[in-house]
Amino acid sequence: MNETNIQRSNFDSLMVPAYSPAEFIPVRGEGSNLWDQAGKHYIDLAGGIAVNALGHAHPVAVQALQEQGNLLWHLGNGYTNEPVLRLAKQLTASTFADKVFFCNSGAEANEAALKLARKVARDNGQPGKTGIIAFNNAFHGRTLFTVSAGGQPKYSEDFAPLPKGIEHVPYNDLAAVADQISDETCAVIVEPIQGEGGVLPADADFLQGLRALCDKHKALLIFDEVQTGVGRTGDLYAYMSYGVVPDVLTTAKALGGGFPIGAMLTTDALAASMSPGTHGTTYGGNPLASAVAGAVFKFINTPDVLEGVRERNRYFVEGISRLNEKFAVFTEIRGAGLLLGCQMNSRFSGKAKQLTTLASEEGLLLLIAGPNVVRLTPSLIIPFAHIDEGLQRLERAMTRFVASQAPQS
Ligand code: PLP
């Protein structure tokens, strides 16, 4: 290998094998178009796993990056900066929150939220109020605390001993929460739609019931909106469509449109527990990340863009349903906005990955969410012509997929 001859095989020789990336290497993107080293074109419906909310290289994000890049990149938290204060104002003006803590990823935002919950209880003179209720199948990130809050033991069990005091109960099962919760519970953490777990939406009465239980036991209700946030569901944040206001909300992914940034949003009263020195991170609220996020957030947070997300949802659901009438691969197409999950039927159980691999051969990037769900998280402003082109490529992939699964004679 030299600097001009980079190949996929270099990944295996150079990188910690924590991922097994596709065999091709994308080199350029524009909107929902992507090209690999060989010049092959892809329609990108994966969106960097719900991150590239404006697609690739959107001029608004590029301009913010270039302008701030020429001004000031980084300071450290001994100084504040203009872009971060602007972004904090945007976030608090548009949500329930009064205060923001910035970090670099979804996991870090959740880590901050869980630490805040324990600190608040301690500050209130209840050091024993440490219990956290989380849900089976949930995903909250990969730090030790957040992977322990996640409800998929395969991600946490190899790293034991894990932090204590986290109990998991079935998602959408309010009675199970009512059985588990007590005055020793400091927080309930929940995704309004479980993303990695299979694009499973919460029932409205479940989230409303959680709110009531948290109020009764003085526990914080933490909404993990890392995947659902910043317009993904057709609302700025999913909590807005459920009519349930959390105490703490975490956001990342789409917030930077591809530039790494995360944030924890909360109220004045709760934020007071994070006094100077309590928590921090070198890059949190870095001017470069904040400037890009500010531009992306401003672009998305308009009635037109949000209505466009809902419109594209209908268009995708109709289009995929039409294909499914022909191929009978999915039992259900669910989710909200442009967080869509297609559940494989029993005939194709466990084969979501095979379908997405065929799709990439046809020039279409899709995701999975577990072995049985094909997931789509495209740009929130993907042009309809690209959706049409994507669906045509999906049709070709489904044709090959169904044929490859036919009983051999
Ligand atoms: N929370 C949710 C709901 C997520 O979907 C993810 C990532 O997929 C995370 C947290 C972790 O975010 P990050 O990978 O940025 O740490």
Describe this structure in words.
The chain is an alpha/beta fold and 409 residues long. The chain has helices at residues 8-14, 47-50, 59-69, 82-94, 106-123, 144-149, 174-180, 204-217, 239-242, 268-271, 287-300, 303-327, 352-361, 384-405; strands spanning 26-30, 33-36, 41-44, 99-103, 131-135, 166-169, 185-190, 193-194, 200-201, 220-224, 248-251, 262-266, 330-336, 339-344, 364-365, 367-368, 373-376. Helix 3 packs antiparallel against helix 11. It is globular and about 65 Å long. 48% of the residues are buried. The mean pLDDT is 97. Bound molecules: pyridoxal-5'-phosphate (PLP). Pyridoxal-5'-phosphate binds next to helix 5.
Query: In angstroms, what separates the terminal alpha carbons?
Result: 46 Å
Tell me, briefly, the overall form: globular
Helix/strand-derived category reads alpha/beta
How many distinct helices?
14
Oligomer: single chain
Give the biggest beta sheet.
Answer: 7 strands, mixed
* Backbone CA Rg: 22 Å
Kindly report the spatial arrangement of strands forming the biggest sheet.
4-12-11-10-7-5-6
Helical fraction equals 25-40%
Low-confidence stretches: none
Count of extended strands? 17
Strand content: 15-25%
- In round numbers, the mean pLDDT is 97
Bound molecules: pyridoxal-5'-phosphate
